[in-house]
Amino acid sequence: MEAKYQRVLVSSLQGYSLYLAKLPQDQLKMVYDINKKLVSSKKFWKYSKHTIPMKAPELLADETAHACVSVFNNLDEADPTVLPTVWDAALHVLTTVQDCWFHVSAEKLVLPKLWNILRQGGQGNAATIFPNLMPLLSKIPVPVRGDTASFYTKFFSNMRQGYVRQ
């Protein structure tokens, strides 16, 4: 029964994603209030692992904290079918949400997950993860990463552990 529920939920979210992708921008603006009500719902954010509307980021203007936390909370996702979407969403959030680092704790949420991914050699998904590392690193501001030498020493040390492990 749970699998059936998940299939219905995923199909519904994929349908909503298709709706956002196919609807012309002018028509999307006409139904802005309806979509805004949907993405403001607490129930919607319970299913944040499944999708994030990339075509209409203005709908998330008041929900940037939820979006940032939801995306970075799943950065260490190991499922190879979900992983590319999570990393695309992470890079998308970093480029579209100007105050993203205000909403997430790099020290408590993002960096521990990143270090773990590197130590695990990309968790079997290096082909998906590693091409996204440079864009991710370029979006981490100096105040967030702290001492540059220390940050990159940890980064490459964890990456080296992952290579040795593989």
Automatic annotation (TrEMBL):
Its EC number is 2.3.2.27. GO terms for molecular function: ribosomal large subunit binding; ubiquitin protein ligase activity; zinc ion binding. Pathway: Protein modification; protein ubiquitination. Keywords: Metal-binding, Transferase, Ubl conjugation pathway, Zinc, Zinc-finger. It holds the Pfam family Ltn1_1st. The keyword Zinc applies. One of its GO terms (cellular component) is RQC complex. It comes from the Eukaryota. GO terms for biological process: protein ubiquitination; rescue of stalled ribosome; ribosome-associated ubiquitin-dependent protein catabolic process. Residues 1-140 form the E3 ubiquitin-protein ligase listerin N-terminal domain. It catalyses: S-ubiquitinyl-[E2 ubiquitin-conjugating enzyme]-L-cysteine + [acceptor protein]-L-lysine = [E2 ubiquitin-conjugating enzyme]-L-cysteine + N(6)-ubiquitinyl-[acceptor protein]-L-lysine. E3 ubiquitin-protein ligase. Component of the ribosome quality control complex (RQC), a ribosome-associated complex that mediates ubiquitination and extraction of incompletely synthesized nascent chains for proteasomal degradation. Belongs to the LTN1 family. Component of the ribosome quality control complex (RQC). This is E3 ubiquitin-protein ligase listerin.
